[in-house]
Amino acid sequence: MTFFSILFALLIEQLKPLRADNPVYAGARALAEKLEKSFNAGQVQHGRIAWFLMIAAFIVPVALLYWISLKIGPLAALVVNVAVVYVTLGFRHYSHFFTSIQLALNNGDEATARSLLAEWTKRDTADMDVSEVARIAVEKALVTTHRNVFGVFFWILTPLGPVGAIMYRVAEYLARAWNEPKAAEREEFGRFAAQAFYWIDWIPVRLTAAAFAVVGNFEDAIYAWRNFAGRWQDEAVGIILSAGGGAMGIRLGASVENAADVIPVDAGTVDSITLETEAPVGEEASVRALQSTVGLVWRALLLWMLLVLLLSIAKWLG
């Protein structure tokens, strides 16, 4: 059932992408802001209480609904699964930006590409050359693909099912929303949300990197992962981008002054990548790197779907 839930949700999203300003996401943002205003007194424990309340506000209704659907029958449970996966996936939330940037660069329209990247990342791109535009677009696409697709896949495959998928997406949002800007009282309040998501995402991050290695240049991906992931300020981002860049033979990462904003737009936050020097693996990012990224992501997606299918068959036979 999990395989068909993901398959149907992906097909529905291709036909009718969920808008970034949909009522569910808007409600999550409003509740997160309300909890922060109510609980943020500049202490870590206040952020911990608010985090658990926010998580419970979403997973308890979903758990109850899923339990009722299981009592009704497999078809009802499938409908709930599809609905949850559709809401939690974000495959098309950013792909139109990436595709438009790729088309603009292919047509030699650098101004449009910079404008689209600025709208996507909410940063100044006026002085960026083609290579930098391509690199930042690739970096953002790889990280957001993991957080909006592959991370959801992992948690829906766990015994928690749709509850796990909801927990992952809410935790990912809180880790962003409660940690920017870095005001002193907000830094303490959001510390637990960041730590919680680090552990929630610990296994999914490494599975995504492994998937990139399997469907790309395995040796270079593993080499870059082992030797250069630690040069990023964010460990999870470092693992994904080092493995993804190695798999495609592309150098990713920049100095802190010129780091890519790799956090999805809807939270309006920034997550910087830090590299002391460029990793001596692969070529400099170019227009072709965007096409390589599309191929890598789709191959990784097919690999995940194959694994989901095999696990579903094994569960059914068992």
UniProtKB/TrEMBL annotation:
The chain crosses the membrane at residues 49-68, 75-94, 149-168, 296-317. Belongs to the CobD/CbiB family. The lineage of its organism: Bacteria, Pseudomonadati, Pseudomonadota, Betaproteobacteria, Burkholderiales. It comes from Herminiimonas arsenicoxydans. It is a multi-pass membrane protein. One of its GO terms (molecular function) is threonine-phosphate decarboxylase activity. Pathway: Cofactor biosynthesis; adenosylcobalamin biosynthesis. PANTHER family: PROTEIN AMPE. The keyword Transcription does not apply. GO terms for biological process: cobalamin biosynthetic process; response to antibiotic. The keyword Ubl conjugation does not apply. InterPro entries: Beta-lactamase_Reg (IPR052966), Cobalamin_biosynth_CobD/CbiB (IPR004485). It is found in: Cell membrane. This is Cobalamin biosynthesis protein CobD. Keywords: Cell membrane, Cobalamin biosynthesis, Membrane, Transmembrane, Transmembrane helix. Coiled coil: none annotated. Converts cobyric acid to cobinamide by the addition of aminopropanol on the F carboxylic group. It comes from the Bacteria. GO terms for cellular component: plasma membrane.
